[in-house]
Design a protein that fits this description.
This protein has one domain. Helix content is 85%, strand content 0%. It contains four helices and no strands. The protein has helices at residues 3-37, 39-74, 87-124, 131-164. The chain starts with a helix and ends with a helix.
């Protein structure tokens, strides 16, 4: 047994599980439940949650990707030269692309969430409350939701293809 490979896989898989689980929970359980409770509750809870969850998910995504690249380069009998060439390479390659796209979607959602928090904070402090502010809040909320769902679905593709890589 290659202990280094076990450690590398652990440092890749544990943050990947956290990232994927968090994205799925947020997109398909938490956000829909909060949306049914009304915009005011949804915004208050998501502002609080995303202050912690956003940076945590970004850290988990970075660890997942970094250790994923390390694993590609250190997996016995496989490597970067096999990406998209054989069954293993196709599975890992698709998973790698899906993971990177998920990180990009999550990053966009994070930046939009930060902008949304700033706008909501300004409105809460009695700042300008124009119809333009409320319209932008609705637009940002919808876009954050969409990018979070895209991230979660891409992560499912990544997990599925990478989990099957050793069997193809």
């Amino acid at each position: 047994m290659d202990h280094t490979l076990v450690v590398l896989r652990t440092f890749h898989i544990v943050p990947a599980v956290f990232w994927t689980g968090s994205a799925l929970f947020q997109s398909f359980v938490l956000e829909p439940a909060l949306r049914r409770m009304g915009a005011e509750i949804e915004h208050a809870v998501m502002r609080s949650v995303n202050r912690v969850l956003g940076p945590t998910i970004m850290g988990a995504s970075a660890l997942t990707i970094v250790f994923g690249f390390i694993l590609i380069g250190t997996t016995p009998d496989h490597g970067f030269a096999e990406l998209f060439r054989d069954g293993w390479g196709l599975s890992i390659g698709i998973g790698m692309v899906a993971t990177i796209l998920a990180a990009i979607a999550g990053g966009i959602a994070g930046f939009m969430s930060a902008r949304l928090r700033q706008l909501l904070d300004r409105v809460d402090r009695g700042g300008v409350r124009s119809s333009e502010d409320y319209s932008m809040i609705d637009v940002l909320t919808s876009r954050v939701r969409t990018y979070n769902q895209v991230q979660a679905l891409l992560l499912l593709v990544a997990v599925g293809t990478m989990a099957g890589a050793r069997f193809v």
